[in-house]
Amino acid sequence: MSQFKSPNDLPATAAAGKIQFPLPNFLTMVTESFGISRAGTIGLVLVIGLMLVSAGFFFIHSAPPSTITITSGPEGSVFYTNACKYSKLLARQGVKLNILTSHGSLDNLERLDDATIKLDVGFVQGGVTNGTSDQLVSLGSIAYQPLLVFCRGTPVDSLAGLAGRRLAIGPVGSGTRTLVSTLLAANGIKPGDTTALLDWDSETSAKALLDGTVDAVFLMGEDASAAIMRQLLLAPDIHLLNFTQAEAYTRRFSYLNVLKLPQGAIDLGKNIPAHDVYLIGPTVELIARKNLHPALSDLLLKTAQEVHGKPAMFQHRGEFPAALDHDIPISADAARFYKSGTSFFYRYLPFWLASLTSRILVVLVPMLVIMIPVVRSIPHLYRWRNQQRIYRWYRALLVLEKELLKEPERSKRQALLKRLDVIQTEVNKLKVPAFLADQFYGLRGHIDFVRQMMSDQSPP
Q: Between vectors from CA 261 to CA 255 and to CA 267, what angle results, nearest 5°?
């Protein structure tokens, strides 16, 4: 704001006799250039500063974490091996993957459901996810998980034929044990009867089967290594159970799939297996917590495509990962990924640069969209407000002039003159910005004009 005073109040250089104006500070520059009051300028600066601080806070806290944690399976298992592959691929994008070993799917699911455990994602086989927390989402199915049943002695063609024998069904906390218990119960085999159900790990179970300590073992990739499975497949005295009722199992348990191990698939020269073997098994899901960063969701699914998208024994190229409908719903971020892939920046830029670019756009674009119209409107509003203050006295001056022209009596004209003095006094008190100086001085000149007109028309 500027209150116009006499030139005598301005500093001058005595030697040169020239008026020297002080250099304006920042607030004065904004005030005089854009027509904002000093208080308004301070308020605007504070608002912009607050918006910038908020944008910076959001920019920092919206960044995807550089470290995530996955719960896998026992060391050496297929789950653990896949987690190690994920770790190598994620490291190329600057993301560190911490791997927590576990007993298997059930253990992984319980960990993910426990908010006190620092965890992001985990491998969980289908069939064990019923009744879980609504704080979990699925990023999709990543592979088939065949159930391999290795037996000694006389071959059997159904699980019911294993009644009364010694069976290693997997350790407590594994999805293998959960699934096998369900399938055995469907065949009338339950804990406490004549069948011995042992909760040994895959390595102990395989060794016991080779030694003849147990009659059958149930193995799945979540807790068994590919090496152990291959060892049992090539063992001469051990055969793989052919699920002749595979179709019936999938009708009864919707999460199961019919899988075929083709003749000679293990060893063409030795023709192992000697005939097609039908198996059953669920899919493996990549389960995450709902608060998983969208950028990490895309990165994990892109990594899953590299690890699981290749053709394998039980799948075709590009079959996985897939958004298959199970107990845990597919996350919105994963659904978008399956529909349209990764976003533009993450498709063509390194992960860190894509994250930085996308966050800049998310923060700056909305802020500019809001700030630019607001900032541009403030000078117009302020100009309008100050003009109204000047126009107010112009209206009063016009009314006074009309009354003067109609009033011939000297006594009444004196009262009008006092009103003119009040108007002049109030106008002199006005503080207006420099860009309205012409209107301000114009108003003062018009007041003098009306006063002169009154003098000219005064009776002698």
A: 150
Q: Which pTM value belongs to this model?
A: 0.67
- Dist. CA 1–CA 36, nearest whole Å: 8
State pLDDT tens for residues 155-214: 888 999 999 999 999 998 888 999 999 999 999 998 878 899 999 999 999 999 999 999
Give the position of tokens 């003849």: 212
Report the phi/psi class of residue 453: left, alpha or beta, with left for phi > 0 and alpha for psi in -120 to 50: alpha
Residues 6+ apart with CB under 8 A from 446: 394, 397
Host domain of residue 386: 7-57+360-457
Contact 177, 171 (CB under 8 A): yes
Task: Examine residue 252 and state whether it is found in any structural domain, yes or no.
Answer: no
Classified as helix, coil or strand, 84 is: helix
Number of domains in the chain: 1
Give a yes or no: residue 148 inside a domain.
Answer: no
SS3 403: helix
What values do phi and psi take at 109, rounded to 5? -65, -40
pLDDT at site 62: 58
Distance between CA 172 and CA 194 in Å, rounded?
20
Q: Residue 125 — φ and ψ, nearest 5°?
A: -80, 150
Distance CA 291, CA 373 (A): 34
pLDDT one-digit tens code per residue, 361-396: 766 777 777 777 877 777 777 778 778 888 888 888
Selection from 430, 446, 448 nearest residue 395 by Cα: 446
pLDDT of residue 259: 95
Q: pLDDT, tens digit, for every residue of 48-90?
A: 777 667 666 665 555 688 899 999 999 989 999 999 999 999 9
In a domain, 314, yes or no: no
Instruction: Give the residue among 281, 261, 279, 280 at the shortest CA–CA distance from 271.
Output: 261
Round to whole Å and give the CA distance between 167 and 198. 6
In a domain, 29, yes or no: yes
Query: DSSP letters along 252-286, please?
Result: HSTT-EEEEE-TTSSBTTTTBSSS-EEEEE-EEEE
In angstroms, the CA 450 to CA 398 distance is 9
